[in-house]
Amino acid sequence: MQNEDPKTGSKLKPCPECGKPASGATLPFCSPRCRDVDLNRWLSGSYVIPGKETDPEDAE
């Protein structure tokens, strides 16, 4: 079945980009296009992990 993980047989989550069923070859995405869209967002800085502001005194 296409909506199951081939290794565990558990149900796959939908693609985080478009919501279509995920594909085994491009997990957790449905296609190489969605995988590349997500990678571009990481590389361009669209996804940011929030952190604590640094004090100028701590930088020295």
TrEMBL record:
Transmembrane segments: none annotated. InterPro entries: DNA_gyrase_inhibitor_YacG, Znf_NHR/GATA. Keywords: Metal-binding, Zinc. Zn(2+) binds at residues 15, 18, 30, 34. Its cofactor is Zn(2+). One of its GO terms (molecular function) is DNA topoisomerase type II (double strand cut, ATP-hydrolyzing) inhibitor activity. It holds the Pfam family YacG. Binds 1 zinc ion. GO terms for biological process: regulation of DNA-templated transcription. The keyword Metal-binding applies. Interacts with GyrB. Belongs to the DNA gyrase inhibitor YacG family. NCBIfam families: PRK01343.1. Inhibits all the catalytic activities of DNA gyrase by preventing its interaction with DNA. Acts by binding directly to the C-terminal domain of GyrB, which probably disrupts DNA binding by the gyrase. HAMAP family: DNA_gyrase_inhibitor_YacG. This is DNA gyrase inhibitor YacG. It comes from Bradyrhizobium lablabi. The lineage of its organism: Bacteria, Pseudomonadati, Pseudomonadota, Alphaproteobacteria, Hyphomicrobiales.
